Amino acid sequence: MTQGTEARMTMIESGNASHAAAVMPGHNAPARNPGTAFDQGWVESIRVNLSAVERRVATLPKRRTVKKAWQAAWLLKAVTCIDLTTLSGDDTPGRVRRLCAKARRPVRADLLEALGFGKRPLHVGAVCVYHEMVPTAVAALEGSGIPVAAVSTGFPAGLSPFRLRIAEIGESVAAGAREIDIVISRRHVLTDNWQALYDEVKAFREACGEAHLKAILATGELGSISKVAKAATVAMMAGADFVKTSTGMEKVNATLPVSLVMLRAIRDYHERTGHMVGFKPAGGISKAKEAIAYLILVKEEMGDAWLSPALFRFGASRLLGDIERQLEHHVTGRYSALNRHPMG
Question: Domain 3-14+39-340: which CATH class?
Answer without folding.
Answer: alpha beta
